[in-house]
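User: I'm putting together a teaching handout on how multi-component assemblies are represented. Below are the sequence lines for each component of a complex, exactly as they appear in our records. Could you produce the 3D structure of the whole assembly as structure tokens, so the students can see both representations side by side? Please keep the chain order the same as the input.
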Amino acid sequence: MININANRKTDLIKLNKPVYIISSAAVGGGKEKEGPLGEYFDITDRDVKFGTKTFEAGESEMQRVALNTALKKAKTHHKELEAILAGDLLNQCVSSTYGLIEFGAPFIGLFGACSTMAECLALGSLLIDGGHFRKVGAVTSSHFCAAERQFRFPLEYGGQRAPTAQWTVTGSGAVILGGADSSGNSPKITEVMFGRMIDKGITDIQNMGAAMAPAAVDTILKYFRETDANPADFDIIATGDLGIEGKRITENLLLSEGCDIREKYNDCGLMIYDCEKQDAHAGGSGCGCSASVLCGYFMRKFMLGEYKNILLVCTGALMSPGSVMQGNSIPGIAHLVRIEK
Amino acid sequence: MININANRKTDLIKLNKPVYIISSAAVGGGKEKEGPLGEYFDITDRDVKFGTKTFEAGESEMQRVALNTALKKAKTHHKELEAILAGDLLNQCVSSTYGLIEFGAPFIGLFGACSTMAECLALGSLLIDGGHFRKVGAVTSSHFCAAERQFRFPLEYGGQRAPTAQWTVTGSGAVILGGADSSGNSPKITEVMFGRMIDKGITDIQNMGAAMAPAAVDTILKYFRETDANPADFDIIATGDLGIEGKRITENLLLSEGCDIREKYNDCGLMIYDCEKQDAHAGGSGCGCSASVLCGYFMRKFMLGEYKNILLVCTGALMSPGSVMQGNSIPGIAHLVRIEK
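Assistant: Of course. Below is the structure of the complete assembly, with chains in the same order as your input.
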């Protein structure tokens, strides 16, 4: 096997052989069910605690249900999973811990803030492409109520939200990645790119879109400069959760570099809610945003044959409430995966 | 290339070709300098803020200095790093973010609590072994003062510590991993194993050793059952930060399974401090514990020819203060790397 990356001088990594998305599942809350993509979720529950006693345990439960559903669709026993790659927004990533422990698989915990799904998919693909694993799970989640009280205010406080603030998606997405495609019908990951941390000095915790947009621009620009691909090649180029403000900044910064993706570009955070009607302000955010849009809507589009080629660029804001209170600005990161069929 | 893992039925992953630890660097605080391994640190500073304004920024600074020092030793420009794998204990892993952003490398954020260094090394090795990367950095850290106020009490409170409580190491370790060894003298990683999450119902936040020991036992037992190796083959079998209590539990649980590692076994948390004289109670802990012992002491032993073969089993407690307050027990995890020369 000649490794096509042996002398790569790019951040882009082309897989030697495709890695298949054997199955996926999206779990969401009531607001997500009511949104424009509601019908694409596998399971939704209006009970924000998902039958548990706390928001946090509810988030774990979403991960458990999402992975279980994806395993069932793939007709895969959980013992066949050689590893689970997962992460979330809660301190010390406890949603993933408590949600996934019962699967008993070797566990690779990741933290990429809201970019974690692309990080899971990229790493999982490389581990399979490298020949070390045959089948792995990739799972992330976020939960509005758990995130609000951890990052901003307890819900009971009724804090006012800025127009640029985003609404953390209550949702989870799970993917089963494999080196072989028994169905002959699975979309495949063909290219991945790990983003660099970019900090343009944004300190406004109510404007994560602005903080993350420069990272998205960095990754997208690198992608189109390092490949022969054109925006027109894709059915959709989707960022993770930049929202109205971040999407606009991304479009404008890319345009100023001569890269026009507008015709194919959308943001998962804008797709998942009807921002005006659903009072979601600048759009959805959170690890569960791009994860559930990918695992629900995008995968359905692939299955229906309506999508053949997408570029998913999940974006994350690498901050903590403490780091912002200490006066640090908010670096962003954007990891990329190309999915084709 | 025939991949030796193509049909593996084990959790253990043997690398197809060795991945070299080209260089390493250990940074620590004053207490670590005064400990039995003090002389093996590359850089120590009695100023717990490492010249910055906060404990948290000081922790980031340790990561920056550690990676910089490792790069210098490896005569490697930071632009040669094709990725940095890193993580820490602070909420949303911000020590790694702010400490490593200036290196400008593609960034892969990990969370494995105190097991993060082995997770970084294992993943980094697989990415190089798979042919996707040639040179990556692996960095972790922890900081006593930052961890105390995040996980337990602000220092000013002067909270009493239980005898089983551990002392979070103020330290950072950085490793440069590469597929080629220009010096001809570098230790190499030959086997890795990702641990499974194990929860035996421990809820005492002042006894992390007991929470993590069953995970260490699970990984160590699997290792010796899945290989022909014997404890006698190693110069040292080192767990990450189980402390007095956790080490004893690990020894006893392993003995009850017929696995006697006592002659070669030690715990980084017990090596880094003179627990009695230094008032470190049950021993050191934190991502920086096993990382700095590896990058300082163990690597020096390899360089001196005194070590030829070690088994590093970094242990992590996958909890948050919130998860414990909500009544959850504390799952542990233990990732393993074998390093040889």
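A couple of points students might notice: Residues 15 and 126 of chain B are 7 Å apart (CA to CA). Chain B has ten helices and 13 strands.
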